[in-house]
Amino acid sequence: MKLFTLRQALKNDARYKIQGHVSWSTIEGQVVVVDEAEGKIFRLNKVASEIWKLLDGSMLLGDVIHEVEKKFEAPEHRIRKDALSLLKQLQREDLVREIK
Amino acid sequence: MTPSLLEECLSPKVIDIVDNHDEVCAKWRSYGLKQQVLLHLDAHHDFGWIANKSPREILRAPNFQEVEKLLGEEGWKTGSLTDQDIHLGNYLHQVFREGRVKKWYWALPDSLWNDLGMREIAWKDLLDLYHRRTGPMDFPEREGPFFKTKILGVETLVSSLSNFPKFEEPVLLNVDIDYLTTLTFNPPPEPRVYRSQTPWIWPDELVSLFQEKNVTFTHAAISRSIRGGFAPLRYKFLGDALFSLLEGNPKPEGYDILKDALVLRSKGENGDALKLLSRFRSAGAIETARRYFSSQILYEFGKHEEAREEFAATCALDPEFQMEYSNLSGIYEQSQRWNEAREEHQMIRALDPNSHEAIAGEGRFWAAQKKDSEALPYYLDAVKRAPENYKYAFEIGRVLFKLTRLEEAEFYFQKSLLRNPSQPGIYVELARVQIALKRYDDAKQNLREALKLGFHFPVTYWLLTRVYIRLNCVHKAFECFSEFLKLKFKIWRNS
After folding, report:
1. pLDDT cut 90: percent of chain B above it
2. Residue B304's pLDDT is what?
3. pLDDT at A53 over 60
4. Phi and psi angles of residue A24, each rounded to the nearest 5 degrees, phi first
5. Nearest residue, CB atoms, A38 vs list B449, B451, B473
6. Is B418 on the interface with A (CB under 8 A)?
7. Nearest CB to B76 within list A1, A30, A39
């Protein structure tokens, strides 16, 4: 099941959405995420913050990576690696979900 | 104008009478009261700490320095804050936070303070407040006839009213009727004894004690505490009588006869008590009390028909008596004394055959005997009579679950939620059914909803552990299991 989730995450045409029990805001350019159900607080770095802001369920993962790539002028493979690692963690914490 | 009249005009008295004690919070706020000496006459301190900060507040911080500072503070809670966070067990914390009190005198009933065992319970209550504190509080000390501490900067003195020194300035008077009627913190003894118990102090005697202690006030509140279940409904008239006396009126008509009748009854002299009660002819403020007590005594004499008539007349005068008119059954249920609880329900049904409370009570009796099939028809009957009552649908759901009628159980839990979506326990029970139906995603959503509503109990985390295992979320399952163990250990340690 875990491998299946990873494979899914690798797909460019996956979409992700922030869960309803999560609130967030930007403080000093970085996103702070609050899981209200469990009372947990997360701080995202600048690249992760930009990815997070695009997770509204409307954009494909490939487009999200492309947008972030433009902002940070970093190689696409690097952004992709960071994005996939982030999404894996966010899903593990139940902060985002993949939209079928 | 005479000097006394002038004084009366300069310091008019405001007396409020409420049912649930926390209602005073809004009233005192509307009067703009500040820095008062609070004289709180109550069997309970009513000061529970309110975890008042939602993690969402973090998001309002302007910078990370502020975030760090906020995270270092205490009093965080998960889930969103609602009005239900302030209730009759903690409203005084809110009152203190708003700066309305500078000194707090908590007077326990003499019946509790003078009993060393009961006094220790009050001491433990204070220690418990200290250990659970989410704000500044000094370690309580015993000093002479007092317990002393300081809470949120408010000097706090606990004792019986007779031990307090004379009051030198007007107080904010806050009386709970359970102060007059509570004789013990323990569950009541056999019903007949409990029912015939009389208050340890009567309103007129309390007013005399106020005079002795030089208690004056500009604002006073009386809480009947009936719905909260702390004062029996039969003593509702005590609140009205105290209100009238504090307003400076003479004792209500018939007050002394009623008092004498109740004292006779406490001695088992029901015949004489009934004769005295019959002497009432005026439909005054305490007519309900007379009729109510008459119905009880007539019931005990086996005159059920007349008892029912008297009870119907009581309800016609005050429909509140139609609700669970004796909360004694609830107390017995809490202490799992099911046969005594059942006797209470049977009496209620003899007086009011339509009482859905009593019918559901019969259901609870059978459910407690693990005879769920016997319980079910009573719950179904109760929900038919009171379709808006979420508790009956909930009970039906539980019984159906135990009978492994899962789809029907789910239906009733959902029905219960429709009527009261803010009860976290229903989400947990619904999740339990959904786990049995192997609908793990639904179960997860409901358990998370329960957590959001503050239901942080081992059972929630245990069920979540099971759900996450089924969903192959090993990391989350492990986290929930750790939380389960932590809570379980805490409960075990506390017990």
Report:
1. 52
2. 85
3. yes
4. -155, 160
5. B451
6. no
7. A39
d(C-alpha B471, C-alpha B258), whole Å? 66
> Which of A24, A28, A40 lies closest to B63 in CB terms?
A28
Q: Is the ipTM of this complex over 0.85?
A: no
A40 vs B contacts (CB less than 8 Å)? 55
Q: Which range is least confidently modeled, A64-68, B203-207, B366-370? A: A64-68
Instruction: Between B438 and B11, name the one with better pLDDT.
Output: B438
Of B55, B449, B474, the CB nearest to A34: B55
Inter-chain CB proximity A27 and B54 less than 8 Å? no
User: What global pTM score does this model have?
Assistant: 0.66
With an 8 Å Cβ cutoff, is B471 touching chain A? yes
Q: Is B452 on the interface with A (CB under 8 A)?
A: yes
Tell which of A31, A33, A38, A40 to mutate to test the B interface (max B CBs under 10 Å): A38
Q: Kindly give the pairing relationship between strand B146-151 and strand B141-143.
A: antiparallel
